[in-house]
Amino acid sequence: MSTLILFLPPVRPGPATEYSYTLTADGHTALRHATAPAALLPEPTRPGGEVVAVVPARALSWQRVQMPAGVPLGAGQQTPRLRSVLEGLLEDRLLDDATQLHFALQPGAHGTAQGGEPVWVAVCDRAWLRENLQALEAAGRRVSRVVPEFAPGPTASGGPELCALGTPEEAFVVLTGQGADQGVAVLPLTPMALALARAGAPANDAVAAQDNSNALPVRAEPAVAALAERTLGQRVALHTASQRALDAARGDWDLAQFDLASTGRT
To answer: What band does 263 get if pLDDT is binned at 50, 70 and 90?
Structure first.
């Protein structure tokens, strides 16, 4: 079995659209990684192979909402009523018309809401996501899961982490792990990003950070690693797009929900 993991491009697909992809046999190690048009993407081996699409951090926003009592959130219950409830809860928070956006609830949303806790909702452009999935399916690469590049929740280090991405001309950082009430933040690559990460660190880590500039984990794509070290004033660990793809695919999120749910029929 193998898995094809690909990043969705930031724009709507066209004939010349290319996808950065990683092919893996075990979910942990890349067999191959490159960029190719949809029709030339490798096919995961069968049986059991799958195609996983990764939504870039800059294409998603994160909202935390308190669901009304009595609204079912379990599997198979993503009804137009639930969609309408989410639109009502989010319309005042979103810059775009809620009807033009795609929503996806966090894994285990039913149990979280039953416990009285707010649930995370991932939000992205509906038409953009649908058109990319349709373009891949037309090329014979039907996507079985859609995952976020980064998601809210605990990090491997147990505290805030930064990841520098992009190009030297357009570099940015993604901040994760700031606590249960904070989602994923996308910020310009500036010293302020490191200051924000340290401000969200537990007290004992914040003290350590005064003596050890490497107290907070910072990873970076090779293209912006040197820039990140100069800007943030500390060493960074190299972390390639292929490694991010593997990390994302191992997560438990699936953004293919509501009208974009991936089933045996659709």
So the answer is: low
